[in-house]
Write a structure and sequence with these properties.
With 312 residues, this protein is mainly α. The chain has helices at residues 2-44, 60-66, 69-100, 107-114, 122-133, 141-144, 176-201, 206-214, 219-248, 251-256, 268-278, 282-311; strands at residues 47-50, 53-56. The model has no long low-confidence stretch (mean pLDDT 86).
């Protein structure tokens, strides 16, 4: 009798603990690939490498990072890149989504073709776009180097110097290489944003659109007063996705411009790579990674708050 009670308790314990054992492998993987590296980065940001090993230096890595002229310059480049890339991608994605939502013939085929850039890796996109403008043998080099189109001596995107800044040291207007980088990043991200907005457009009841047109609203008024407000939460999510990807993306900068010419396209993510893997200053690189982590958390918190406000 007592043995039967023990067996019943053991079976009940196994049944109640089964969910824990099922998710344990996933938890262990997350601890190894996410939690441990995060805490190691925090520890590393307060350390400095010397011949005898690691030594604690407190906030010295952060002070050295803020003291770099290249850091403040990279912040400006990151802002210019994010604004140009996010606004251009969101605007083009919205226009394409409106076109695809009109039930065009072969719209499924168009969506399939449109999705191709999204499956290509960033670094491959950067290489392809670089080959397009390489002097002498690039596909577009003949057009860009024509003095009649780009006086006085043509345009070399990968080597052209930045124009004189309009606002002190802030890097605006951007260099030709930065503009080209924004266009390449937009081409890469456009399919996902278009499909995201298209899915949102297809949830709008047709009765609302038809009623507004019966009341005399034209196409622009329907878009401005009905379509955009109804899909605004999705647009906020799309903008968050673009901004988060732009802050952390480094592959396209690495393969397309390498941060150049000079430092005109050296955004914060590429500066992190340069400090860590070119200069081998892992403590200062970890400090920059911490700052980027804070930026990511602020973006996530801001997006969640905006989404809640729009839902209310």
């Amino acid at each position: 009798m007592q043995q039967t009670g023990i067996n019943h308790k053991a079976k009940r314990w196994l049944r109640n603990s089964l969910p824990f054992w099922l998710i344990l492998p996933t938890v262990l993987i997350l601890l190894i690939v996410q939690v441990y590296p995060a805490f190691y980065t925090i520890w590393l940001s307060f350390q400095e490498r010397n011949p005898t090993g690691w030594s604690f230096v407190g906030w010295a890595n952060f002070r050295r990072l803020f003291g770099m002229g290249l850091f403040s310059e990279s912040v400006g480049h990151t802002i210019v890149f994010l604004v140009g890339y996010s606004v251009l991608t969101l605007a083009l994605g919205f226009v394409l989504a409106l076109l695809l939502n009109r039930k065009l013939r072969l719209s499924g085929f168009y969506i399939t073709i449109l999705f191709i850039p999204w499956i290509i890796a960033d670094i491959i996109v950067g290489i392809v776009f670089r080959l397009l403008v390489v002097p002498d043998y690039g596909l577009l080099s003949g057009i860009l180097q024509d003095p009649a189109l780009f006086p006085p001596n043509g345009l070399s995107i990968l080597t052209a110097v930045s124009p004189r800044p309009w606002f002190g040291d802030f890097p605006f207007p951007p260099s030709p290489a930065m503009v080209y980088l924004i266009l390449a990043a937009t081409w890469r991200a456009l399919p996902f944003i278009t499909l995201l907005l298209l899915a949102a457009l297809q949830t709008i009841p047709t009765e609302i659109i038809e009623s507004s047109r019966i009341d005399g609203a034209n196409r622009l008024q329907v878009i401005g007063y009905i379509t955009i407000p109804l899909i605004l939460p999705t647009m906020v999510v799309a903008l968050f996705s673009l901004t988060l990807g732009g802050v952390n993306g480094v592959g396209m900068v690495f393969s397309l411009t390498g941060g150049g010419p000079g430092s005109s396209t050296e955004v914060l993510s590429y500066l992190l790579y340069s400090i860590g893997w070119r200069q081998l200053e892992f403590g200062r690189a970890a400090a920059l990674a911490m700052l980027l982590g804070v930026v990511n958390w602020l973006l996530i918190a801001g997006t969640l708050r905006l989404t809640r406000v729009q839902e209310r």
